[in-house]
Amino acid sequence: MTIDSSLAAFQLTDAEHDLLPTDAEVQAYLDHGWYLTRKLFTDDEVDALVDASERFYGGHRDRDLPGRPPKLAYWDNSQSADVQRHNDYIHYESDEIGRILTKPIIGAVAARLAQADAIRVYQTTLIYKPPRPDEVSNIVPWHFDKHYWATSTSERMLTAFIPFHDCGEEMGTITMVDGSHLWKETGVNDTVVKHFAERDNSDLDVMLAENAAFNNVEVKKVPMVIPKGHMSFHHCRTYHGSGANVSGRPRRAVSLHLQDGDNEYRSFTLTDGTPVSYNHDVLVRKTADGRPDYADEAFCPVIWSR
Ligand SMILES: O=C(O)CCC(=O)C(=O)O
Ligand SMILES: [Fe+2]
Fold it and tell me: How far is it, in rounded angstroms, from Cα 199 to Cα 192?
């Protein structure tokens, strides 16, 4: 019998097996919509992420995106260094960051949580919050990620939030609204599919309270206190956001957005008939029936398969 070398990548060591969420932890994720992992990265791996991100901010690219999708979040050094920086497709433009983020244990944890046989990258965003307590761009308003992913069929997508250091409340860590992935939505309109940077965010606490009341629950916010090498996961319908960085140090992180193997493109339109698009739609290859292929391994590599 021959062993398919492409499958050999999706194996865990015995030590890594111990890092997987237990059945009780998977159940807690299904109930609460978030999960804090064990230590999945060594300190050296995390430090390598910091170094690679600094090289990236300095202008280094291993590869340039072949196009500029209309909704791309993309900081570059022509902009102020002291705003919150977002860079989509960091796994594509930085080989080092891409290599570390696609470590099989992360996919294996995601597969357990999403109850999926396979996990692919959907998107990655490099994030930098400068140490400026009053910087308004540092605030991440309440949102859930599925609103940006209307053209995806899956309801099981999820995100790993990966800080490059110990990350507590003083750094403006990601904060989950406990159990909100189970809420029925009220007040949905066309604006929810817009990125938070382009929305009116003045009433989001009201929106959150109204949605909670509609579901007969209270808003319970849980800040993720994440030690170096650990990460948090959230379900694509879990409301989350984050506050000011008052720590005196930059808050560095990647959001690793993941899709289960079954996810694919579907057309989605606003109430006036305008089609919604995702950045991938102008970058990835097409499927046999002409849709953007969310399994294009150039952008959406498989990181775990059973
Ligand atoms: O940067 C943050 O605090 C939140 C990032 C985020 O929205 C996400 O990981 O989905
Ligand atoms: Fe998010």
Answer: 8
Cα 268–chain centre separation = 21
User: Is residue 7 helix, strand or coil?
Assistant: helix
HSE-up (13 A, CA, CB side) for residue 251: 32
d(CA 231, CA 3): 32
Cβ neighbours of residue 154 under 8 Å, at least 6 residues apart? 236, 259, 260, 262, 263
d(CA 51, CA 43): 12
Q: What is the DSSP letter of 285?
A: P
Which superfamily is assigned to 7-305 in CATH? Answer: q2cbj1_9rhob like domain (2.60.120.620)
pLDDT per residue over 28-69, tens digit each? 999 999 999 999 999 999 999 999 999 999 999 999 999 999
For the entire predicted model, the pTM comes to 0.95
Cα 162 to ligand 2 centre (Å): 12
Is the CB of residue 161 below 6 angstroms from any atom belonging to ligand 1? yes
Three-class secondary structure assignment of 170-201: HHCCEEEECCHHHCCCCCCCHHHHCCHHHCCC
Which atom of ligand 1 sits closest to the CA of residue 173? Answer: 3
Alpha carbon nearest to ligand 1 atom 9, residue: 255
Q: List the domain boundaries for the chain.
A: 7-305
Closest-lying ligand 1 atom to the alpha carbon of residue 125: 9
Angle at 278 between CA 274 and CA 281, to 5 degrees: 100
In contact, 85 and 127? CB cutoff 8 Å:
yes
DSSP, collapsed to helix, strand or coil, labels residue 247 as: coil
pLDDT in tens, 64-92: 999 999 899 999 999 999 999 999 999 99
